[in-house]
Amino acid sequence: MRVIIAVVVIIILTVLIVWLIDKFVPKKLKPVINILLWALIIFLGYITFNSVYEEIKFNKLKVDRYKVVIDRLVDIRDSQLAYKEVNGEYAGDFNKLIDFVENGKVPITQRRDTLVLDEERTRAFGGVETFKTLTLIDTLDFYTVKDSIFKGDMRYKTMADVGVGKPGAKFTLQAGKLDEIPVFEASVDKAIVLDGQDKYLIEKERQAVSIAGVKGETVKIGSMEEVNTSGNWGKDLSVKE
Description:
- The protein has helices spanning 2-24, 30-87, 94-103, 119-124, 145-150, 190-193, 199-206, and strands at residues 105-117, 131-144, 172-178, 181-189, 218-222.
- With 241 residues, it is α+β, with helices and mostly antiparallel strands.
- The chain has 2 domains: 2-53; 54-237, no CATH class.
- Strands 3-4-5 form a 3-stranded antiparallel sheet. Strands 1-2 form a two-stranded antiparallel ribbon.
């Protein structure tokens, strides 16, 4: 919008100045005025170009920063899913989650069906043997979360850190239940991720609704309002999904 306004202003000013010169300026002063006019046009052109270029730079920077944030959020989501498999719920703070990744073990299970005598139905049928199917879950082994998800990388120890934008910024982590179903959400405000950039461009990005980028005021994964473990970004922004 600012670029369109700038272009319109340049056109209006140019037409107005040309008309004023032709109408009121003596012929002997016109060369000087023309030089000033060209200087003004060049200056306004520079402002327009700079406005466009700044937005191009901002768009590249935001994508680079989003990729860092999103890959960290995916790590948080994968760690939370492993935590829930063992504990039946999600972790509500990073200390619990990081400790689980460091020390927790997730069972490797195998499901199998077996037939057993249904004593109640057998009695009901006068001693005629009746069988029922039971599903048994066998624990075959365990795997450590840090080796399975992080492959020996120690980045899980700093998974609470946003990593870009405002120095020292942390993700917000929430966990709870929705209709007795465990849910979680990890998020960070876009203003934190894009800290140090033009405030107008940041606010414009916070209002984004396009599904191609990051939708909404935050970059987040999971939800406290619905059963969902997905992120609010397009697939092209993450190398892990």
